[in-house]
Design brief:
The complex is a heterodimer of chains A (149) and B (164). With 149 residues, chain A is α+β, with helices and mostly antiparallel strands. Chain A has one domain: Roll (Thiol Ester Dehydrase, Chain A). Helices cover 28% and strands 35% of the residues of chain A. Chain A has 4 helices and 8 strands, in the order αααββββαββββ. In chain A, the strands form 2 sheets. Chain A has a 6-stranded antiparallel β-sheet with strand order 1-2-6-7-8-5, covered by helices on one side. Chain A has a two-stranded antiparallel ribbon with strand order 3-4. Chain A starts with a helix and ends in a 6-residue tail after the last strand. With 164 residues, chain B is α+β, with helices and mostly antiparallel strands. Chain B has one domain: Thiol Ester Dehydrase, Chain A (Roll). In chain B, 22% of the residues lie in helices and 34% in strands. Chain B has 3 helices and 8 strands. The chains are: A alpha+beta (149), B alpha+beta (164). The interface between A and B is large, with 42 and 40 residues.
């Protein structure tokens, strides 16, 4: 079992397609995430769906799901950036909620703001129709697995 | 730590009363919370506890079976809102403006996650809530969190429908 995600990451580095890596992580699959990439790294997309709703009256995506989406995007970025063959461990995450997240396609992209040997500092932004109007932003620290070759 | 008594504000009164039953009815009406199976175990003024059942679909690391951090984030975000409702007695429309979670250690694979939140301060518009999560022993926490909510009593819409 432990070979599965490592193999998926290695294959993705050959092909450039990280969807199989994403789908080997059950909760990312549960959220229905889709990963594409541009020259700056993975752009994750979370399609609007009923089970991610946190406020059925508005309706809006659950704030916790927005946090989970930002965290997932940061994880995919670290694995894409060749920092890790394994899922990096999150240390902390601070989410700023900027706008109500409607139940439509939501996108996110991360940047590594500082990278050490053991820790990666990340900044992630999520947006919907207009990238200039982010719905949420986060900064987070991740522990990079030491056993990585 | 004695919680400060929150003086009920007139603009909160028209929203549904927060009881353990009404809060759990609300939980199952929220699609994501229903999908995660979160249940409010206890409510005591500003202090409340919820439980998230372990589910392999919610795993974040397939090599270890540890839950995705985002699952804990969602449990805590939801719990903090309910702690606010419980503290002021009414489910007032509110939005998260800031949430910070510190992941002290991975959740134990196969075990349910409990979380306790305490609403520590309520102002006319804001609520400040802190939370702790654990698996088997509250003195061995897996996460700490702090959360800021903004209340929007001028809004008609709310996560739960009035019981009347």
């Amino acid at each position: 079992m432990s070979a599965t995600i490592v193999d998926a990451v290695k294959a993705a580095r050959e092909s450039g397609d990280y969807q199989a890596v994403l789908e080997s992580i059950p909760y990312m699959k549960f959220l229905g995430l889709v990963v594409e990439a541009d020259e700056n790294g993975p752009i994750c997309r979370m399609p609007g769906s009923d089970h991610i709703i946190g406020n059925p009256v508005l309706p809006a995506i659950h704030g916790g799901v927005v946090g989970a989406f930002l965290e997932s995007t940061a994880i995919m970025h670290i694995m894409w950036s060749r920092e890790s063959l394994h899922v990096p461990k999150i240390i902390n995450l601070t989410v700023e909620y900027l706008r109500s997240a409607r139940v439509v396609d939501t996108y996110a992209q991360a940047v590594i703001t500082k990278q050490g040997r053991r820790i990666a500092n990340m900044r992630v932004e999520a947006w919907q129709a207009d990238r200039a109007k982010p719905v949420a932003a986060a900064h987070a620290h991740f522990l990079l697995p030491r056993e990585d070759a | 730590m004695a919680a400060p008594l929150v003086k009920p504000r007139p603009e909160w009164q028209r929203f549904p009363k927060a009881t353990l039953k009404s809060m759990n009815d609300m939980e199952v009406a929220i699609p994501q919370i229903r999908a995660l199976g979160i249940h409010i175990e206890s409510m005591d003024g500003p202090v409340i506890v919820s439980r998230l059942p372990y589910n392999p679909d919610l795993v974040g690391d397939p090599e270890t079976g540890v839950l995705h951090g985002g699952v804990i984030t969602t449990q805590i975000d939801n719990l903090c809102a309910v702690a606010l409702y419980s503290a002021i007695g009414h489910a007032v429309p509110c939005v998260t403006i800031d949430l910070r979670v510190e992941y002290l250690k991975p959740a134990a694979p196969g075990l349910d996650v409990f979380a306790r939140a305490e609403c520590r301060k309520v102002t006319s518009q804001l609520a400040f809530i802190s939370a702790t999560a654990w698996c088997t022993d509250e003195s061995d926490p897996i996460a700490f969190a702090s959360c800021t909510y903004m209340m929007l009593p001028e809004r008609e819409s709310t996560a739960i429908k009035s019981p009347t």
